[in-house]
Amino acid sequence: STLEESVKSTVAENPVVVYSKSWCSYSSEVKNLFKSLQVKPLVVELDELGPEGSQLQNVLERLTGQYTVPNVFIGGKHIGGCSDTLQLYNRGELEPMIAEASGK
Amino acid sequence: STLEESVKSTVAENPVVVYSKSWCSYSSEVKNLFKSLQVKPLVVELDELGPEGSQLQNVLERLTGQYTVPNVFIGGKHIGGCSDTLQLYNRGELEPMIAEASGK
Ligand SMILES: N[C@@H](CCC(=O)N[C@@H](CS)C(=O)NCC(=O)O)C(=O)O
Ligand SMILES: N[C@@H](CCC(=O)N[C@@H](CS)C(=O)NCC(=O)O)C(=O)O
Ligand code: FES
């Protein structure tokens, strides 16, 4: 579908992508983590897109198996949610991954 | 208003009350904390009440100054949200408060 294709190109063309909801604290935690690492992710606020937001959420589930937000991609690779991202960070694996995806 | 009165009696008549949203991870964290303390709060899932849910959320803001969920009351006293509750727990103040509210 075109929405599926647009998600695939979004995550391919942007080193860090966060599908988020603007009032969700778990989504905020992930966005704040990237901010503290001086990383500027592409953030897609699903609750601010009207009906397309829930369509996107369904497409993401089809593509990644994950329905929940936040939904994080680095270098086009599906990372997971808030806990997955924090875990990678705590293991020292997140920053190298971001550096590589940003072509550094 | 009647909704305001019903909130006041709910928090007066139940030792622990959590106004929550069923798909919100911060709300889950608070509910899980109480569960681990073998406490059974009265849980009100605002997203499962149709239009009354957002009315309740507005009433809670009027009564407590807090619009967000989770919104926690112990012994009729407004505690706050997830971080407030966790902070009280970490300081060893939560359990005595619950015990007192439960009339123990
Ligand atoms: N363990 C997951 C939890 C994700 C989760 O439960 N997200 C909630 C919001 S906090 C969700 O997407 N609920 C369904 C929805 O909002 O549509 C993580 O760390 O990201
Ligand atoms: N620091 C607060 C954060 C509360 C918060 O931002 N809650 C969000 C959901 S995680 C909220 O209520 N957003 C508005 C809404 O869902 O209506 C806490 O620890 O409880
Ligand atoms: S909606 Fe509350 S943590 Fe995501």
Automatic annotation (TrEMBL), chains A, B:
Residues 16-79 form the Glutaredoxin domain. The keyword Disulfide bond does not apply. One of its GO terms (biological process) is cellular response to oxidative stress. GO terms for molecular function: glutathione disulfide oxidoreductase activity. GO terms for cellular component: cytoplasm. Keywords: Redox-active center. Belongs to the glutaredoxin family. CPYC subfamily. This is Glutaredoxin domain-containing protein. It comes from Eutrema salsugineum (Saltwater cress).
